[in-house]
Amino acid sequence: MNQKIDFTITKLGKNTVKSPIPYSVEKDKGGARFVSDDEFILPSNTLKEQNTDSLLEKAGPREMIYFNPNHVHAGIVTCGGLCPGLNDVIRAVVRTLWYRYGVQRITGVRMGYKGFLPEYNLPVKELNPYIVDHIHNMGGSILGSSRGGSDTVRIVDAMERMNLNILFTIGGDGTQRGALAITKEIKKRNLNIAVIGVPKTIDNDLSFIHKSFGFDTAVERAVEAVNTAHTEAKSAIDGVGLVKLMGRESGFIAAHTSLATSEVNFCLIPEAEFSLEGENGLLKKLEERLDARHHAVIVVAEGAGQNLLEASGETDESGNKRLADIGLFLKEKITAHFKKIGRESSLKYIDPGYMIRASAANPVDSLYCARLGANAVHAAMSGRTGMLISQWNNAFVHVPIDMAVSKKNCVDPEGSLWRDVIESTRQPARMHD
Amino acid sequence: MNQKIDFTITKLGKNTVKSPIPYSVEKDKGGARFVSDDEFILPSNTLKEQNTDSLLEKAGPREMIYFNPNHVHAGIVTCGGLCPGLNDVIRAVVRTLWYRYGVQRITGVRMGYKGFLPEYNLPVKELNPYIVDHIHNMGGSILGSSRGGSDTVRIVDAMERMNLNILFTIGGDGTQRGALAITKEIKKRNLNIAVIGVPKTIDNDLSFIHKSFGFDTAVERAVEAVNTAHTEAKSAIDGVGLVKLMGRESGFIAAHTSLATSEVNFCLIPEAEFSLEGENGLLKKLEERLDARHHAVIVVAEGAGQNLLEASGETDESGNKRLADIGLFLKEKITAHFKKIGRESSLKYIDPGYMIRASAANPVDSLYCARLGANAVHAAMSGRTGMLISQWNNAFVHVPIDMAVSKKNCVDPEGSLWRDVIESTRQPARMHD
Amino acid sequence: MNQKIDFTITKLGKNTVKSPIPYSVEKDKGGARFVSDDEFILPSNTLKEQNTDSLLEKAGPREMIYFNPNHVHAGIVTCGGLCPGLNDVIRAVVRTLWYRYGVQRITGVRMGYKGFLPEYNLPVKELNPYIVDHIHNMGGSILGSSRGGSDTVRIVDAMERMNLNILFTIGGDGTQRGALAITKEIKKRNLNIAVIGVPKTIDNDLSFIHKSFGFDTAVERAVEAVNTAHTEAKSAIDGVGLVKLMGRESGFIAAHTSLATSEVNFCLIPEAEFSLEGENGLLKKLEERLDARHHAVIVVAEGAGQNLLEASGETDESGNKRLADIGLFLKEKITAHFKKIGRESSLKYIDPGYMIRASAANPVDSLYCARLGANAVHAAMSGRTGMLISQWNNAFVHVPIDMAVSKKNCVDPEGSLWRDVIESTRQPARMHD
Amino acid sequence: MNQKIDFTITKLGKNTVKSPIPYSVEKDKGGARFVSDDEFILPSNTLKEQNTDSLLEKAGPREMIYFNPNHVHAGIVTCGGLCPGLNDVIRAVVRTLWYRYGVQRITGVRMGYKGFLPEYNLPVKELNPYIVDHIHNMGGSILGSSRGGSDTVRIVDAMERMNLNILFTIGGDGTQRGALAITKEIKKRNLNIAVIGVPKTIDNDLSFIHKSFGFDTAVERAVEAVNTAHTEAKSAIDGVGLVKLMGRESGFIAAHTSLATSEVNFCLIPEAEFSLEGENGLLKKLEERLDARHHAVIVVAEGAGQNLLEASGETDESGNKRLADIGLFLKEKITAHFKKIGRESSLKYIDPGYMIRASAANPVDSLYCARLGANAVHAAMSGRTGMLISQWNNAFVHVPIDMAVSKKNCVDPEGSLWRDVIESTRQPARMHD
User: Fold this and answer.
1) Which CATH number fits the domain that encloses residue C117?
2) Element (H, E) at A126
3) Would you give the DSSP letter of residue C97?
4) What pLDDT band is residue A343 in, cutting at 50, 70 and 90?
5) Lowest mean pLDDT: which of A77-81, B42-46, D211-215?
6) A224: which residues sit within 8 A by CB, 6+ positions away?
7) Are residues A364 and A352 in the same domain?
8) Confidence class of residue B27 from pLDDT cuts 50, 70 and 90?
9) Phi, psi of A384 (to 5 degrees)
10) Which DSSP string corresponds to C71-96?
11) Less CB within 10 Å around the terminal CB: N or C of chain D?
12) Considering only CB atoms, which chain A residues are within 8 Å of B82?
């Protein structure tokens, strides 16, 4: 934690409206309770990393709110690649607005930020509890999604035309940077519009987000792919199963999947360098594994081993740099190696990306999304803006967008998660010279 | 049915041993019963296609058997690509031999026919009910599998060295042709070895096999892939989901999957020609679909549209001709087309092949495999040889190998299955000029 | 087949309207084809049971139909207990009416036949393809269901008031008898209303219905319950897992589930008598099993062992006689027996009934329902009435209601299914004196 | 946190053996690292509840250990009711002992503490990585389990006879109290035996255990049961689905399940009192719900509403008091109430207990169990005793057994979890007068 930490949350103004939610207001009188503005969470779980000046505000419903529910017109937009749970978050936002606050003007913006831009001519979708009743059983986003379209000025123009006073942005790194720019443009124009983000990052790579929604579901689906690879590997002569998983800069999905199955022999992630050649290199170690057991399973995060590849220099519409395909690269290198040394081997390559990200959320993710969505509404109604809802240190908290996107969350190669992966895979702790 | 039909089953000799199974032998006295050798099944379900001279022998346990169970040493081999249910069939064969007949010498040959060949140096695997107790919950084959290795003379040499008197060959078209050659070589050498096949063809393309084992499971998994494609398509601007499924010469998996989901808009199979260009061509029809609904799902069997591709002329180790990849071909053609006409569209291509074929069997396939395996043992113990176990016209029957491999089983483009697919997809009944 | 067989199908009148479906009409010209009225299916698959005078009419779209689609108002009703696939059938009926025939007046009657009766005051539900788009992913029936309410005269009164000219009745034995009565009342009143049934019987006990829809899904869910019972049994000292499954008069679910898992040691069905006491009785055999393996799994169909119980003499609203609860009876008897002989044992009783019947259909059932529903619409549009859609001898056929309900379909205790169950469970072929 | 907090961990002696695990020992040199004995975790995530004198020791592998791996004979026992993940923990313990420390004498004690008692005559089960290779795919415990048998003196006698120097006790509250008694008896006899517990409590009711293993899987299965109840309720006239879930003193499963589905209208837990009668009582509120929507789903934890029932005063073999059955009680009361007021309603009661607890762990629980088991081995090898492995405040930590069992972990009826449940169910915040 060397970065400058400032968890102060921006508010649109004073909270002068009484919340319509029938909670108890006195502590210790029994029954559910409002959260007060002086409840905070420690950012760290250890003594020495603690900075007690810098605390995270607790999320939840406030007794006094900023917006009069009758005047609220809320918008929801989902951006970037698909992720399990998008529909669950949409559903929770709609239900909490409607049933708890009585807000009845809720508009879904179609296909990401592009939905705000007139040239795409995308009709908005009116939302209410009946429309969203069953959507949590479906993968994807009923609003659709896209990368790009982050044209701040014209988005705020569109928001003004629509008379939105709340915008929920469900998306990753790029989306939330866009939301921050929108917040600043709103401030510049002196508008009273709250912008609340729900962070979506299947890679789990945002800061101060303990576990992003959809992550557990992604691991569940990834485990199925790994089991397939294991089955193929075991059923062939010196069979190798190679599975590419998500993880552009962080190997969380690969690491968790490896731990969950115990069938993985090599887990390759961006945070832990590896070489192909040499005594400690992957090819040599793979040969040793095949000598011993005659089959092997390799899991590789899409951002791993980039040093081995020629960077393309390109970026996608979200501004992410295009990664060269490490999966296909390894497939070719391993196949060529065994051909060269004259060993009959059979490599099966599995890329389950779409089948993972388009899944419906599993129940644990569903409930997580339900709580994220509800807390996002409470934050917006209380006039907070330019912030994300996050679960951190076992509590739902408010995180300023700039703190969340300041640094990537990565697997600590000296930490306990990676250590347990190495215990499970029994791969060398260091796979390069 | 223009082929010459001869369903006569070859037997090794007279059945002089009393079956050790404690069934009732008299009809109408209650309790399970042996099958007698004069029970037959009609090959067709319509009057006009019926040829009453040509009937299929009913499978099942006989009161008098050929082999003395104490002298039996049975071998099992699984060949070709993986398919859900291989372990279930192995398990049923082992359990029926062991528990019903008391046969205790059962040997698994590793990695397909190659396991017979000394140069591969593959140790055999002794099999018994304890070893196979839980294997039906796992995909793949505990014996492993491979293509090729069909070296008849040396396989029979190995069988003689091992003193096998029964061989169960679990595999497809090529495997069963191999089994037929083995049967002939056995006959030439005057050996008393029974060879019984259990037909495995995930494509469902063997004759006189109503539905091959693993087919239902394959459809179930394929449906998951199509749902993913549908989710991706709906969540993008003019999104197209393209799924490649098994089906080299027969489109059964593609057709059944399309019917099971009703999310498929174009189902492309080898049996129904289609063009890309022209008024009735796929590209034009796809544009119309996107105009109307803004998303589309295409399912393509791997053998479809081969006329559109350059044949490579190569074959794989099983002797199947290598097909050019219609999935990647369509992906490129469709993407290029939309680029050319300047339409923003997003195509996601999903190839779930390994994830389908390496699945564990679902319960309905498990029970089917259990019955196939049991009936294979009954056939072998009664001295039958050179034949397959099949379910046909709602009964388990014996089919001579040459009848089963004589002709591919295909989707009838004038029949009710294809008609129902067209009803469900609402694709044109004819998609070429 | 000793019953009098008359498969003649009743038609409302001459077919004078050209079908709007764009199929090819000439054979061998390629492309999907209409079914002609002279296509028939043999009722049996063996030579000796064949009666070639008595053939089943093939289902499917006719070139000439009876109703003018513009004048059609179709009703759909689902009756009796829940069953996987109800929503799939509703969906297929709606889609086929709407997309193939252009029928746009489709009305769902709520909560079974009671939905016709004014005193229940149940509003009907207008149906169209958008409303039914996702319902196949849900269990139950979007129309609701109930037993009883089969008040023929008042139902036909209601149908007249609603101006229905087609009614689809999705339900079991009792429902279809009701449909037959409705057909007769319609005839008496000289109305032109077609009544087409889709047989629903999770027990699989109707005649000339090869496998009822939802059956495979039911077996899949039942297998999960049996696996649970097996796990509990193995994890306890002399543990016994007891699972009660559907099957009032036919043990098909119990038999198929036992075959699918191979974990069942005793499968008890209505068709095979058993005693508790005596040398061959269940209690003695259970003790022997526990001596040998220290755990046991028992599956009992709800209609099994009724001779051991006092009949209550009551009936439910559908007119089915109330069965005494064999599951609880066995639980008590077994527990008491082990207590009496002083043996520590632990019995876990599982009754998964609702969790089975309220499941969504699996993909194979979904596709089956899709085809049943489509064929029901084709039958109705062609003016057929008083009949069911069935799959029999591998073809979709028309079966007169009275033939289907004339006799229960039962497991043949001398046949191959029961024999294979006995092979799998290794229970005695005869479990009474 | 009013209890006296002392997190000091007991150790058998000085750590003088070098760990055989090849980790890096220097920080910031890259690669996985040992945990040092001065790494601690804060017990709370808020400032005011923090007591910085009282910290939890971090779990993980130590560079110096207590036991010489060559001399170790480890025992494993699983006690109490089944829970998803038992086999995963066994597997992780065996693999970590074997592969990381080279311990090859590992003994499974059968059927809980009873397996130590000579009168049960239960043979032990030798464990190694091959035997446990696939067990994580199975529910239950391969060692079996039972309640009771906690005869401290004779257990330690048996441990001495077996020459165990490590015992892993996998079980709940009662089991861990037993483990504490065993630890004390070991100390009294001056033996060098480490006793390490892995806490198993499907109810999630132990202190300083953030989430017990198997909990997520239990919620997943419970959600399936609730979906069934919802389907049944919606498909009937004024249908009510009633589901009883685990939760003797803590309503965590009921609360999480309600949040995960959003189909629950009334969630009843032990921590929140409710009445049946009166204006705010369940019966009145249920009527209002049926008036509005015509179906309702109730989830009840088994320990809820005990004030409404006559206590039986009995206890089970584990010493837990027998609860009267709130599920059956509610079923009868609700049914009687609607009969009394003359309203046609249909209640379906579902008790999925065994189907939940006997499930295999889902992937997320599998990975959690893998890490718990590995950390338990590290703790034992370092000579710690009388403690549990727990995940708390996002870290794996050591918790003295007496702190964990000192107080039940309960749902805080004023906290955010219960608040979010009330938001989701929209049940009254207070359901009694």
Assistant:
1) 3.40.50.450
2) strand A125-126
3) I
4) very high
5) B42-46
6) A352, B355
7) no
8) low
9) -75, 155
10) G-EEEEEE-SS--TTHHHHHHHHHHI
11) C
12) 231-232, 235
Is A203 among the residues known to form the active site?
yes
User: Do C224 and C150 fall into the same domain?
Assistant: no
CATH code for position A241: 3.40.50.460
What pLDDT shows up at residue B26?
66
User: D touches which chains (3+ CB pairs under 8 A)?
Assistant: A, B, C
Q: Which among C182, C112, C197 has a CA at the least distance from the CA of C404?
A: C197
Both C238 and C250 in one domain: the answer is yes
Would the CB atoms of A374 and D423 count as touching at under 8 Å? Answer: yes
Tell me the nearest-neighbour CA distance from C143 into chain D, angstroms. 7
CB of C210 closer than 8 Å to CB of C413: no
Pick from B122, B223, B354 the residue to mutate for testing the A interface (most A CBs within 10 Å).
B354
Pick among D136, D137, D359 to test the B interface (most B CBs inside 10 A)? D137
Q: Which residues of B are annotated as a binding site?
A: 81, 147-148, 172-175, 201-203, 246-248, 302, 354-357
Same domain, B183 and B64: yes
Asked if the structure places residue C172 within a domain, the reply is: yes
Judge if D373 and D395 occupy the same domain: yes
Q: What confidence tens digit (pLDDT) does each residue in B359-416 have?
A: 999 999 999 999 999 999 999 999 999 999 999 989 999 999 999 988 888 999 988 9
Chain D residues in contact with chain B using a Cβ-Cβ cutoff of 8 Å = 134, 137-138
Q: Which residues contact C330 (CB under 8 A, 6 or more apart)?
A: C242, C282, C298, C300, C305
Shared-domain flag, residues A59 and A144 = yes
Mutate to test the interface with D, among C86, C170, C228 (most CBs of D within 10 A): C228
A433, part of any domain: no
Q: Which residues are CB-contacts of D30 (< 8 A; sequence separation ≥ 6)? A: A413, A414, A430, D24
Res A312 pLDDT > 60: no
Number of domains in chain B: 2
Q: Min CA distance, A97 vs chain C (Å)? A: 25
Pick from D92, D269, D314: nearest CA to D198: D92
User: How distant is the Cα of A143 from the closest Cα of chain B, in angstroms?
Assistant: 7
Q: Mean pLDDT over residues C159-171, rounded?
A: 97
The residues with which A77 forms a beta bridge, in sequence order, are A109, A169
Question: pLDDT digit string (tens) for C334-389?
Answer: 999 999 999 999 999 999 999 999 999 999 999 999 999 999 999 999 999 999 99
Residue-number span of the structural domain to which A106 is assigned? 10-212+360-405
Q: Nearest-CA distance from D318 to chain A in Å?
A: 30
List the catalytic residue out of C6, C28, C37, C203.
C203
- Flag whether the ipTM exceeds 0.85: yes
Three-class SS string for chain D? CCCCCCCCCEECCCCCEECCCCCECCCCCCCCECCCCCCEECCCCCCCCCCCCCCEEECCCCCEECCCHHHCEEEEEECCCCCCCHHHHHHHHHHHHHHHHCCCEEEEECCHHHHHCHHHCCCCEECCCCCCCCHHHCCCCCCCCCCCCCCHHHHHHHHHHHCCCEEEEEECHHHHHHHHHHHHHHHHCCCCCEEEEEECCCCCCECCCCCCCCHHHHHHHHHHHHHHHHHHHHCCCCEEEEEEECCCCCCHHHHHHHHHHCCCCEEECCCCCECCCCCCCHHHHHHHHHHHHCEEEEEEECCCCHHHCCCCCCECCCCCECCCCHHHHHHHHHHHHHHHCCCCCEEEEECCHHHHHCCCCCHHHHHHHHHHHHHHHHHHHCCEECEEEEEECCEEEEEEHHHHCCCECCCCCCCHHHHHHHHHHCCCCCECC
Q: Which residues of B touch A235 (CB under 8 A)?
A: 82, 140-141, 144-145, 358
Give the per-residue pLDDT at B322.
Answer: 67
